[in-house]
Amino acid sequence: MEPQRSKSSLQMRGVIFDWAGTIVDHGSLAPVTAFQQVFLRHNVAITVAEARQPMGLEKRAHIEALLAIPRIGKLWSEVHQRAANSRDIDTMYEEFLPVQLETLASHSAVIPGVLETLEACRKQGLKLGSSSGFARPIMDRLAQLAAKQGLVMDAVVSATEVPAGRPEPWMNFANMQQLDIYPPAAVVVVDDTAVGVAAGRNAGAWSVGVIETGNLFGLTSQELAELPPSERKAKFESAKQEMLAAGAHFAIDSVASLPKLLPEINSLLERGERP
Predict the structure, then answer these.
(1) How high is the pLDDT of residue 105?
(2) How many whole angstroms separate alpha carbon 165 and alpha carbon 56?
(3) Does the annotation mark 18 as catalytic?
(4) Model-level pTM?
(5) pLDDT in tens, 129-181
(6) Helix (H, G, I), strand (E, B), or coil: what is residue 20?
(7) Is-contact 121 262, C-beta < 8 A?
(8) 214, 192 in Cβ contact below 8 A?
(9) Which of 61, 130, 140, 168 is most deeply packed, by most CB within 10 A?
(10) What is the 3-state secondary structure of 57-121?
(11) pLDDT class of 215 with cuts at 50, 70, 90
(12) CA-CA distances (angstroms) from residue 62 to 28, 134, 217, 263?
């Protein structure tokens, strides 16, 4: 058994990453596309901005949250002559799964800098976990597509395998259990959504918000590169404040910047500070 660590000697033991918008799928486009397609099947058009509002939730919960948006709920009632019910949500979720599988192939590219960051983490002896709001079959396929690009995690946890998805902490705890890393203060959670950041905090871990590659920007790598510098900076600062307000301890542009942050977190731990 590993000896118990004193408070002052604690160091990082692992990092838990979100998937879409954090390590793959620059701009987190796959879920948006799938939600729009599923709602259109029911003659209800939703905008990209609306589709992104509940991002990070388990996908059935995401559909339910979309229907709770006043404009969408009103439009559904006008089209179907009644409010949406749980049976409608179940039907749309069942339709979502194959649609999402179809979109993965074109929205699963590893984000630039991620592979280098994962290698740097492993060189420091850190274990690498991951979590997603996707159902297990979707996650299995996404993990396969990522592995072909050289991205392999030590643990992969889906929201459908725990009692509840984000912002509950259970996916993070499941990762910690599988990887045998504890206490939570020795773990860093990295996510591109507010609920993901909250899940990290709720687990008692260090929570890092990713801004430019994920849901808050919602841009492809090319679109991001084409942003005028002043606009990109202003957009970053606004999104950073949103992440910090959601509870993030730190906010970074992309996972590529994580290796520069980890020594700072280790220094905090060595000084006895905790999340």
Answers:
(1) 86
(2) 8
(3) yes
(4) 0.92
(5) 999 999 999 999 999 999 999 999 999 999 999 999 999 999 999 999 999 99
(6) strand
(7) yes
(8) yes
(9) 130
(10) CCHHHHHHHHHCCHHHHHHHHHHHCCCCCHHHHHHHHHHHHHHHHHHHCCCCCECCCHHHHHHHH
(11) very high
(12) 14, 11, 19, 35
Long-range contacts of residues 60-65, Cβ cutoff 8 Å, at least 24 apart: 60/89, 60/90, 60/93, 61/165, 62/31, 62/35, 62/133, 63/35, 63/38, 63/89, 63/92, 63/93, 63/96, 64/89
What is the pLDDT, as a whole number, of residue 217?
Answer: 97
Q: What pLDDT is attached to residue 9?
A: 74
Alpha-helical (H) ranges within the chain are: 29-41, 48-52, 59-67, 70-80, 86-104, 114-123, 136-147, 170-179, 194-202, 221-225, 229-245, 258-270
Q: Is 269 helix (H, G, I), strand (E, B) or coil?
A: helix
